[in-house]
Amino acid sequence: MSIGHVTMPAGPHKGDVFLVELPGVGGHVQAGRRPAVVVQADRYARSGTVMVCPMTTVPPPDDHARPHRVAVARAESSLDRDGWVKADQIMTLPAPMLQGPIARLAPAAIDRLDTALRFVLDL
Is the pLDDT of residue 3 over 60? Predict the structure, then answer.
């Protein structure tokens, strides 16, 4: 390793988007195969578990701003359509459940997600 060079740990990184098969637990919790964004710090990239927030393509049901829903334009993710990250549905999954990565959020989208997570967690 050279001076000033930091090697990122292997594994998923904050802002990476993976496909996951989420179990159906009922209620309004996302289920089925869908993209999910890694929200844990990179220092945990080698952990056996990964904290993610699921994404949806279904827009919020009204025009009111929802601080726990983060809009992500496809240009900010390289996914095939616009979507929303559901910051109120943080999940910890076994790392082998993640398929990909399939995309990565742009820094501005990660910043908005951080703001939403602070709101949800009252930090």
Answer: no
Q: In whole angstroms, how far apart are CA 2 and each of 5, 32, 45, 60?
A: 5, 44, 22, 48
- Rounded Cα distance, 84 and 80, in Å: 13
Ordered by start, the domain boundaries in the chain are: 16-121
Q: Where are the beta strands (DSSP E) in 24-98?
A: 32-38, 49-56, 69-72, 83-86, 91-94
Q: Which two tokens stand for residue 100?
A: 């990909």
d(CA 51, CA 43): 12
Instruction: Give the tokens for residue 16.
Output: 């990476």
pLDDT in tens, 6-39: 565 678 999 999 999 987 777 777 778 999 999 9
Place of tokens 């869908």: 34
pTM of the model: 0.86
Distance of CA 11 to the CA centre of its chain: 14
- CATH code: domain 16-121 is 2.30.30.110
